[in-house]
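Q: I'm writing up a methods section and want to include an example of the input and output format. Could you take the sequence below and give the corresponding predicted structure tokens, formatted cleanly so I can copy it straight into the document?
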Amino acid sequence: MKYLEDFKSIRRLRFTNRCVQFLLFLLLFIGANYLAAIRFSRMDITFNNEQSLAPVTVAYLSKMEKPVKIYITMGPDSEDVSQKKVIDDLQNLLRRFEFASKRGDKQLISFELVDVYRERLKTQELVSKYGLKKEKVILVTCGDRRREILGQDLYKIEGGVEKLFKGEEVFLSAILDVALSVRQKVYFLTGHGEMLLEDVDSSYGMSELRQHLLNHNLSLNYLDISGNESIPEDANLIVIASPQGSIARYEVEKLRRYLNERNGRLMVFVDPGRKHGLEDLFSDWGVLAQDMLIVDPDAKARSSGGNTVIRHFGKHELTEYLTSFGLTTLCGPARPVREDPGAPIDDRRVFTELLATSKESWAEKHYRSSITSKFHERYDLKGPVSIGILSEMKGGSELGINIKGGKLLVMGSSDFISNSKFLIHGNNLLMGNVFNWMLNRNRFLNIPPKEIREYQIAMADEEFWKVSAYLSIMPFFIFLLGLVVYWIRKK
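A: Here is the clean output for your methods example:
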């Protein structure tokens, strides 16, 4: 009987020992996870730190105070391989943003995937709250402020192949846009019959452009400098949209001072047959916008509505995506805008012709009086004819401080920003890039894009089975050794 009692005591002791071991293991597991949660750290062992944010990104995020929410809406086509890759790239990137923006228990940046078909209430809430025109978007929000990101902005394409992932630069720019309390201000000049932002007219209204700029968190204002008013100090960009009357010389002088003394940004859209009065200002910046009409007889350069289809673009980051995918832009009557061969030489100026017509085109000088369009070598300008030019002034540096130079962009047609043409994909993309670039919204970040690397192992079936056999030998012997040890202990 005593033997049985001793046996029961041993069993109780073993049971108690196992319970204590299990409890200690459970406490160790909970403690390790708790420490990992409050002392979480990451180590990037990839080539060239491909899984880490750039130091400048971390520096910007460390100064954030307002929470930012990012929504990625998707539909059934997200199961497509290419779409799934985009979502995977975004999730991988935004997890890094989440980690870098964490302040103790406070998460300043968070993201959410929303299925537009399975989560209809959530989708409708987003559409209603932020005034979305389409359900599948990438949306960065902070309070009532928002900015949409286009899929084509995330990658650099070369030869139709995605070579670089620019997501870090694009998302940081969007996050700063919505999180910063001060919006960049764009002023539209008035007083000379210019196009109006609220006008819904298809040919001479800019309501679509207005909505686009508001969606990108820009402050839009009108500016009348015909009186004693000076150009505001907070003017980040001035736009002159198709003036119907000549701008007075004292007004031009104000614009000249804004460009030269304040390194300002000025965008001008001029149509043929209109006197704008900006000739002297253009000449200072080496730009010539003659009152001529561009004629392009090439059948490929004419749309069904009689507009000019532009397929030729200069080498610049503004037109890089258009060129890579063979996109086109569209405009109606246009005048030539090019580098002025008679302008004073200035080594600080840099010119870029953004878009041009075909080789068969020409700019006709006497278009008002001629009955038929015919090229005259003596008077007309032979194609390809430039329609838009960018003139930049290098700011240089003083006392170790880099000084930003001014920028002047002149387009030979206002159709690029009119309601009827702005919605066209090529025009929308080009003008969106132009506004962002003129405002330094994507250049000042200086974040290198990540190279997209694909690793593949190519082998024949025979080689595959050999490798599989070699990799299976060690696990098999370990399993066999375990069986032997188990059998010996049982005996």
